[in-house]
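BUG: 3D viewer hangs when loading the predicted structure for this chain

Environment: internal workstation, default settings.
Expected: structure renders.
Actual: progress bar stalls at 90%.

Input used:
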Amino acid sequence: MTAPNPIPRPLDHLTGFGTPGHAALIGRDGTLDYDALDAAVGRLAAALLAGGLVVGDRVASWLPKSREACLLPLAAARAGVIHVPVNPALRHAQAAHILRDSGAALLITGKQRLDSFEKDECPAGCRVWLEEDVRAAGSAAEPLGPSGHDPDMLAAILYTSGSTGWPKGVMLSHANLWLGAIGVAHYLGLRPEDRTLCVLPLSFDYGQNQLLSTWAAGACAVPLDYLTARDVVRGVAKHRITTLAGVPPLWVQLVEAEWPADAAASLRRVTNSGGALTRDLIGKLKQLFVNADIYPMYGLTEAFRSTWLEPSLVDAHPDSMGRAIPFAEILVVRPDGGLARDDEPGELVHAGPLVAKGYWRDPERTAERFRPAPRASSYGGTAVWSGDTVRRDAAGLHYFVGRDDEMIKVSGNRISPTEIEDAAIASGATVEAVAVGASDPRLGQRIILVARGVGAEEDKLLLYFKSQMPSFMIPSKIIWQPELPRNANGKLDRAAIRQGLVA
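Structure tokens produced before the viewer hung:
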């Protein structure tokens, strides 16, 4: 692939990067070549506008990896509306929050998910289209041609957990998503002959980029909803997959699975984000996927992707996050605002055109995270101050030191401790609780819930979590204490609780 084009264009123009007749999307509904992909995107965009949506409206999707789910990021962009994908693993309460917070005018989902809403939980102002109705409307519409929208206009709101409270919506423009797709396709060296197995959720920025970067390279995307590692192995074997993206807990499962030799040998690249790969896991990946390059990466939804490590450097620097990706400027900044010296820890600050537009309808939290770039920045403008502490060595490679906030990351999912704690209290089993992340070799982290009480209500608490929360938010362990420690201000002393768990 040629060097990335720095000029952003409307996101829906990605359908024009492939060769007519070449497969663009292979799913359970059949295969679309690039001509058919462009036409399907145009028909779905036309159906959205014919259904009463206007430019700037939000359309939410709560779907498995169906054809419509894959088309919506581009179809919404072509129609000029803003796509709000909802993770299919979320339960009705989290989905309802996203619909309310985004002000979604339309939800596209299936009947089973729609029926999971409790009375009046789905916002009154949000219309609902079932997936089969959308498919029928799209098949009959006259397709819209490629749009001429301003690349700075919003294309998507991706919801990600904050350090406190409910998930917050990150506003992404056409340019953010376009440049992310072009840049990733470039540094991964994707080619038209490649096939990407899309196993990550499409509501996840890393998951959505599986589609967009593949299409930016004129290659073929194969979406897969999987239950077990064996399903992924079968998908790789069936479709002769060359590219697979994952998070560390998935890689742990995949290296333990049985692989046909020809399936493992078909992979040419494996990419990782959502947590660091260990030296041991890197070794197992290299032993299993003998023809594949390994691409460790670091990212945050507020700027999509920040760094990548060249495969040639993985053996010598397995703990490194690498260097800035195309279109990103990465600075390591001291508390006084100056640049850190080599090997001096500092906050990772990301500047450049991948920086998102802030948090949806949340100026207070936007002002906390999106601030003027440091004086040393060559881009200037607004930067994302990540809250993560890193260091940069003399060769310009970055290394993760620690996370300043209290987020818990389970199987690549960022989880707010407050959301877990609020659910524990809502169950009626306890009146106070603190959620803490503990290291886990398979999951990255697991959730430990410290609750006030004597344990008699544990069954009630677990039943509530299983009925109301996605599986990755269910605590793996509950510790009951008669009283929880407090600080001088009378607040729960999280640091003391965490220290007590590791003591």
